[in-house]
């Protein structure tokens, strides 16, 4: 199912994306430090949180690369074969993956100087803020 929402690269607050990438990386480092120590209790929750953080970091990197006219992933991510994954049992397509990630995350990072509106088809519509 294709979404008709198109986002302009100019409508993205790149600084906010980069700040979230750094924040997520800090969380990953802190969690890895805990998981590297000898476990004295079950750590399944921490392991699950780490996997989610890594996927989130990948999505943010995809978004940042897209905003610069580049592609972060050209090959299927290693953990993308997990049950419940969009690509499980289907051929993986880098452009489609990028489109899904951008459509899912870009609206969370609107540029302070621009607003972004869904397009009804054709070119993305970006309006300057007053």
Question: In summary, what is this structure?
Answer:
This protein is mostly helical.
Set out the fold topology.
Layout lengths: L13 H23 L7 H24 L26 H12 L8 E4 L7 E4 L2
Antiparallel strand pairs: 1-2
Helix pairs in contact: 1-2, 2-3
List keywords for this structure.
globular, 130 residues, 3 helices, disordered C terminus, mainly alpha, disordered N terminus, single chain, two-stranded antiparallel sheet
Structure write-up:
It is built from three helices and two strands; from the N terminus they run αααββ. The chain is mostly helical and 130 residues long. The protein has one domain. It has a two-stranded antiparallel ribbon with strand order 1-2. The longest helix is centred in the middle third of the chain and has 24 residues. The chain is globular. It starts with 13 loop residues before the first helix and ends with a strand. The N terminus and C terminus are likely disordered.
Extract low-pLDDT stretches.
1-5, 118-130
Total strand count, please?
2
The percent of residues in helical segments reads 40-55%
Mean pLDDT: 79
Structural class of the secondary elements? mainly alpha
Order of helices and strands: HHHEE
Which term fits the overall shape? globular
Strand order of the largest sheet: 1-2
Main sheet makeup: 2 strands, antiparallel
Query: In the residues, how many domains can be counted?
Result: 1
Strand content: 5-15%
């Amino acid at each position: 199912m294709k979404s008709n929402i198109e986002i302009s690269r100019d409508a993205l607050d790149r600084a906010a994306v980069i700040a979230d990438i750094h924040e997520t990386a800090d969380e990953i480092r802190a969690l890895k430090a805990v998981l590297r120590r000898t476990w004295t209790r079950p750590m399944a929750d921490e392991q699950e949180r780490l996997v989610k953080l890594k996927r989130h970091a990948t999505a943010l990197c995809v978004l940042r690369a897209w905003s610069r006219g580049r592609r972060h992933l050209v090959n299927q991510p290693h953990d993308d074969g997990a049950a419940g994954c969009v690509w499980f049992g289907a051929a993986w397509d880098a452009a489609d993956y990028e489109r899904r990630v951008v459509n899912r995350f870009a609206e969370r990072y609107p540029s302070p100087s621009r607003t972004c509106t869904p397009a009804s088809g054709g070119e993305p519509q970006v309006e300057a803020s007053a």
